[in-house]
């Protein structure tokens, strides 16, 4: 050290405090001042990849500030403490703490910008340890940022429709081709979303993997109550994860997993869900491949279900024991009001089982057995249940091989049941006979709102329509009744007094005279009067036929 207290190393200054102690300071490359022997923090020269000693060739230190209190971000802070950016008291930052301990006095570290004086510097009270306010990210309440970040990390393209509707109560993303990874991306922001109540992801081919992501999200989300995962090729893996989700989620009310290639073994998760979930109201399992074994499994779930009111099992392969098990479940069920088992194979055995169920079930109101290979024998068996049931309101049996005899048995059962609630009987594509029509008219006299749909009736002939009156005769009668002349009808159009008008002019003349002719009768009259087919009508011929006089 020389006489002026300058160290032999360039860039190192020394000062003596009032107690006679000497403090060494080092000017770092970024303009901060650090005591010798103290490791600098923040954006120090070392953090920039340089040692503090390597900055010896930098500009000399212009000032050293020491005070009895530390001032940070313009706020006074008691010695030995600091206030972080989050507003909580923290220990002194590493640099100032070590200086305070070493020199037994609070030290304020001031940044001196190269070539800028203290007075000119607008950041004289900033340190490298401080966090800029601009770097803080506000809470993402919408989830848009989380979604775009998830898409970036997963490697999928963000869907603008999802971004636009993430704050609405319904997101409908049918046919968007999301795939498993796309489903994962939308599941991430929906975990904490509180706006969306309905999520429709039909036909996106998310498969079992994507179904897993959605199911995990639904275990956490307690706001979505309507979920549509139809047509997504979820198969067995998807059936398992969705079934497990239904066991845990008590906020969901409506679920559709139609058209997902479920086999018999995949029925178990949904049967378990029907037994456990006491909040689920609607379940759609249509367009799958549940057959005999699957029907037996689902029948057990139906018998134990306490909350489901709408169940759709249409377009499966339910038959024989599977169909019978479904019906036995319905005999015990007390919640299902609407059951759709159309396009299956119930046949006559299933009809017998359903008839027995109708004898005991007093909840079911809507039943669709369309296209189930039910013949006249099945219709007769089914009528035995209709005779005693007092809750069923709509029965659909269309497109079954039922003849007029089977239809008659059904209608007779309705007539014989004075407590029947049936308002609609659908026999689409079934031909009835005159006896059926007569009985229907008799029933309608006491039940005016009763509706029956059928294809047609054999032996019933409609009254032939009344023969349409001759339009020319009606024209003549109108002229005579109102004391008109034929020329008066068309003089406004016959400018050259040629006694001829075009077809359109003739029609306009008839319509303008309020002659009681229908459009069809006018067309017939025009075709009759335009004898040569040249598009013009010579009304002189009308006068000759009727004896009316024309102007001379």
UniProtKB/TrEMBL annotation:
Q: Where is the composition biased (Polar residues)?
A: 65-74, 93-107
Disordered: annotated segments: 1-107
Q: Which CDD domains match?
A: EFh
Q: Which GO terms describe its molecular function?
A: calcium ion binding
Q: Could you tell me which SUPFAM superfamilies the record lists for this protein?
A: EF-hand (SSF47473), RNI-like (SSF52047)
Report biased composition (Low complexity) as residue ranges.
Answer: 22-39
Q: Origin organism of this chain? A: Acanthaster planci
Give the transmembrane region(s): none
**Per its UniProt entry, which superkingdom is the organism in?**
Eukaryota
User: Mind telling me what this protein is named?
Assistant: Leucine-rich repeat-containing protein 74A-like isoform X3
Pfam families xref list: LRR_6
Q: Where is the EF-hand domain?
A: 481-516
């Amino acid at each position: 050290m020389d006489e002026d207290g300058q160290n032999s190393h360039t860039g190192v200054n020394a000062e003596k405090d009032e107690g006679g102690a000497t403090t060494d300071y080092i000017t770092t490359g970024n303009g901060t001042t650090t005591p010798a022997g103290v490791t600098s923090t923040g954006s120090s020269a070392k953090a920039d990849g340089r040692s503090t000693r390597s900055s010896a060739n930098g500009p000399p230190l212009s000032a050293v500030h020491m005070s009895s209190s530390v001032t940070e971000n313009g706020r006074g802070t008691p010695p030995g403490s600091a206030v972080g950016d989050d507003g909580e008291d923290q220990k002194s930052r590493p640099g100032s703490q070590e200086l305070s301990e070493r020199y037994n006095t609070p030290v304020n570290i001031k940044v001196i910008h190269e070539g800028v004086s203290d007075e000119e510097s607008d950041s004289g009270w900033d340190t490298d340890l401080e966090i800029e306010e601009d770097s803080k990210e506000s809470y993402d309440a919408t989830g848009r940022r989380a979604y775009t970040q998830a898409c970036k990390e997963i490697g999928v393209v963000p869907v603008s429709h999802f971004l636009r509707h993430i704050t609405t109560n319904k997101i409908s993303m049918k046919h968007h081709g999301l795939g498993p990874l796309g489903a994962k991306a939308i599941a991430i922001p929906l975990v904490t979303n509180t706006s969306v109540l309905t999520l429709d992801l039909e036909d996106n081919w998310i498969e079992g993997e994507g179904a897993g992501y959605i199911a995990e999200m639904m275990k956490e989300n307690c706001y979505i109550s309507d979920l549509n995962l139809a047509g997504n090729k979820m198969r067995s893996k998807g059936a398992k994860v969705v079934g497990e989700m239904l066991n845990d989620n008590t906020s969901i009310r409506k679920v559709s997993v139609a058209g997902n290639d479920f086999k018999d073994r995949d029925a178990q998760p949904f049967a378990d869900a029907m037994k456990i979930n006491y909040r689920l109201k609607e379940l759609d399992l249509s367009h799958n491949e549940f057959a005999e074994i699957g029907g037996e499994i689902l029948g057990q779930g139906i018998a134990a279900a306490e909350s489901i009111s709408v169940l759709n099992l249409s377009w499966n392969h339910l038959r024989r024991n599977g169909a019978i098990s479904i019906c036995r479940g319905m005999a015990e069920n007390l919640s299902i009001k609407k059951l759709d088992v159309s396009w299956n194979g119930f046949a006559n055995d299933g009809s017998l089982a359903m008839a027995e169920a109708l004898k005991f079930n007093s909840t079911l109101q809507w039943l669709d057995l369309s296209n189930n290979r039910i013949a006249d024998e099945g219709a007769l068996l089914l009528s035995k249940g209709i005779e005693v049931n007092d809750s069923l309101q709509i029965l659909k049996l269309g497109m079954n091989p039922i003849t007029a005899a089977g239809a008659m048995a059904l209608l007779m059962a309705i007539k014989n049941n004075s407590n029947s609630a049936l308002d609609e009987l659908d026999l689409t594509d079934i031909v009835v006979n005159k006896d059926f029509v007569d009985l229907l008219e008799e029933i309608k006299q006491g039940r005016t709102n009763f509706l029956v749909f059928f294809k047609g009736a054999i032996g019933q002939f409609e009254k032939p329509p009344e023969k349409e009156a001759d339009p020319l005769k009606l024209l003549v009668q109108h002229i005579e009744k109102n004391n008109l002349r034929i020329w008066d009808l068309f003089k406004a159009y016959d400018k050259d007094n040629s006694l001829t008008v075009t077809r359109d002019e003739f029609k306009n003349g008839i319509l303008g005279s309020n002659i009681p002719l229908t459009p069809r009768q006018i067309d017939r009259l025009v075709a009759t009067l335009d004898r040569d087919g040249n598009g013009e009508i010579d009304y002189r011929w009308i006068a000759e036929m009727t004896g009316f006089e024309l102007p001379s």
